[in-house]
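We treat protein structure as text, and this decision shapes the records that our systems exchange. The tokens are whole numbers drawn from a learned vocabulary of local backbone shapes. Below, we set out a record of this kind in full and without editing:
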Amino acid sequence: MRTLKPIYGIAIGILIVALFAAAIQATNYFFSHALYTRDAREAAARLTEELGHLERVLQNGQTNAPRPLSENGLRQTLDADSLAAQGHRPLFTQDMSNSDLASFMRHIEMHETVRTLAVIWFGQGPVDTALGSETIIPAEPQVMDAIPADRLASLLRELQASGKPQVFISDNLFTDQAEPTLLALPLPGENGPVGAMLLSFNQATTGEFLGDVVKKGIIIVLAMCFAAMLLAGLFVWIRFRDRLEASQTIQFLAHHDALTGLPNRTVFSTKLNEALRISQSKATDIAVMLVDVDKFKEVNDTHGHAVGDLFLQVIADRLTATFGNHLVARLSGDEFAVLLANGGDREEVTRYAAAMIAATRTPTQIDGRELPISLSIGVAQARDAAWRASRVLHCADLALYRAKHSGRGTFIWYTADMDADAKRRKALEMDLRKALKQDQFRLLYQPQFSLRDRSLTGYETLLRWEHPEKGTISPTVFIPIAEDAGLIEEIGSWVLLRACQEAAAWHEDHLTISVNVSPAQFRPGKTEQRVSEALEASGLPPQRLEIEITESLLISDTDAVVSTLGTIREMGVSVAMDDFGTGYSSLSYLSRFPFDTIKIDRSFVATLGKNPTTDAIVASIVGLGRSLDVTITAEGVESEDQVALLRAAGCDKVQGFLFGRPMTLPADGSPAFADPAPSRRTGQS
């Protein structure tokens, strides 16, 4: 059926064209027939008027008193006159060459378009009797013989009945068999027409005029058709162009990244498989680099997604400029890939990677802001036929993971031990999921003391994982795995609830409990809900709970974070800024949110008294805290000299190994150590 649709369409198109042509032909015929008829009637009217003028002349020159022509006088004139004008033979006789009627006949003959065929007298009988008698005086016997008698009779009857000139137009205007146009002029008598003068009217001039009109009409129609075809072609071309452009755009987007214009993951996978087949047949090596933008989320959160998009475009341009003709693709949001199909040896690939790291040392300017660029690159090389695309990408991803956890802003080659690390991380991830269900986590508490009287003021909560086979596992090992596996929020909720429950059971109801909330587990809109639920479930007074955050949390979506912290503070919970001074813009955050506590990072305390710059920084932090009425706590205190310097600077609280290591507390919360005595202040604990 589908194959017949085009045939039906063609047939319908041909039928429409044929109908249109027939309509044009019919219109042309009726228009032409009307034009010929009008022209013939006008000619007959002019000749009748001239004949009437002749009648008035025959009335002895008295034009004001018209008198009908005498039938006998007119017949005698016609019968006696001879008409010899411009080569024509005499009409009737040679006797009346000076008569006025003969002059009229000659005048008619002088018309190029009119010829006299006959003069017909009606007599006393009907027209049919007149046609059958000797009343017809033919001037053109052959032409008269060719005129059908019924047509001539009909023409004369109409003339006799109306007394007006009559015309006959052939129905075959555009054929060689077209009959001549006949004009019948009445010969007036006293009681109406006494006869008729039959003339042949040559309408060649009318045909020429009509031909010109038709030609011009055809030209106009053809011009309009041509213009319509041009317009139709233009519209078709525009639509085809739009569809072609849309098709090209769809084709481009199917194989390229819309933001950077780089090939996408599909193209990269296809090219990688092709490169592997070629390398196996030619015994050559190929290399793959996975490139990840360090801290790209911070760029997005701090400066907005529009700046983040421009930032990715800058990175794409630098990758393309560095790797030249090698394939550079964008795999996901902030992850790129490079295929060195003719990568050469390891040294050449290393030079490419080093050149890319060097290209990121120059920051970029976007909207007047200078943004540093940092990339982590993982490199893997396929050396034999056993390598598959998935294997190469997996190895490069392992190397990238190692680069990101080795300080970022560097490149690392894949090594075989990375597979073992990946398996170990995977195993730990599975064990982490079991640990949540089997309650394998426990909390340790590090005491905090007041420098004013060395009294215990509270504890900071620390998390440990008691693995049934591997023993105690440090948070520095499993927290990154939990963040990658998406378990950090669940673990953080468990820590918050358990810490509140244990603190609520302590006999010393003035001791506070501090709980760290990492950026990975902080969710505006959910974190305050978790805090509220933990307080409600445990019954712990809000003023005994302190939430610690880091400056890196404030960098991401600052407005939402500040709003969430404000809600938490309105509950009565204290908020502390941990690791103060190690972030980007601590002072601006202090101006936006009134923290209750500022904790001096252990990196400043470690060099206290040894580095004048550090001493000045610590003194400035303490002074800032006093001016803002904020509690200052120093972390990592391990010597009495540090205690003395901190007390002299005006620090409020301290914590560190000098005062107590992280420990498990009894259920009642009583300290598992004596008060810090002079023997304990040597740090030998």
